Amino acid sequence: MSEAVPPRRRRRLPRAALLCLPVAAFLLVFFLTPLVLNGFTSLRGADGAFSLRSYVRLLGDPYYLGVTANTLWVSALVTFAALVIGYPVAYVLANHAGRLAPLVIFLLIAPLLTSTIMRTYGWQVLFARRGMLNVLLRDWGVIERPLAILQQALSVYIGLVHVLVPFMVLSIAAVLQNIDPKLKESARVLGAGRFRTFWSVTLPLSLDGVATGSILTFMVANGSFVTMLLLGDGKVVTLPVLIFQQFTLTRDMHFASAMGNVLLAVAVACLSLQLRLVRRRGVER
After folding, report:
1. How far is residue 177's CA from residue 199's CA, in Å, rounded to a whole number?
2. Where would you tag: which of 15, 64, 168, 264 has the fewest CB atoms within 10 A of its CB?
3. Which domains does the chain have, with CATH numbers?
4. How far, in Å, are 65, 116, 268 from residue 264 at the CA level?
5. To the nearest 5 percent, what fractions of the chain are helix, strand and coil?
6. SS3 for 234-285, per residue?
7. pTM value?
8. Cβ atoms 179, 202 nearer than 8 A
9. What is d(CA 188, CA 199) in angstroms, rounded to the nearest whole number?
């Protein structure tokens, strides 16, 4: 037999529901409704009748399958690069930054405080044939001809990693800061060196942060558009770039909606995986 709800709690429930109504209404109108409309649009043909033509075309055409695979590959590569760069930064931030930690965090999130377009144009100025990088390399005698970095895949990867490294660093640093120092001290007392202590104690205990940061980085990279369009100039073709082309050039809204739903499915899968990690961490605690 269920326990009776206390009178005070009964009074608080309607108040909590009323406080949540504005947020629920906002999400319903500006988030859920567009997603539902986009889903219906993808399931309609040119004549307005129900049709799976857009999904058959997207998942059956080798070209679009290749673009979908390339989208996942770019996201995975950017995630790996962000992990390689971000883990050492997170380790220093959590263990050795000390009073400089606020400054390091500010420098990490500073790129996120600027406009995406301004940040991208900054990379264009840096990587241009007569940009700062090529000018310095030629003055130092490293190169004779300017490097063609701009409008290549490399510039896209650099631009994405620059934006997404903070997600990786902050996710890992938060876990590293919560590791009990006594565990590392015990490993050192038992004869383990610094590398063995890191490999056997620190790294395994920080895998939750690595997983969370990787999921967030992968999910954001999967939907990135402006950086790929401006820095890659069409050299790196992904689903967000194709969606832009469908809306602006061919104006095939049904096909563009189907692509958007595929990206949404990938994002939902990433969020589900992150939720599992959070629940597992809560159970272990």
Report:
1. 17
2. 15
3. 63-284 (1.10.3720.10)
4. 16, 22, 6
5. 80, 0, 20
6. CCCCCHHHHHHHHHHHHCCHHHHHHHHHHHHHHHHHHHHHHHHHHHHHHHHC
7. 0.82
8. yes
9. 12
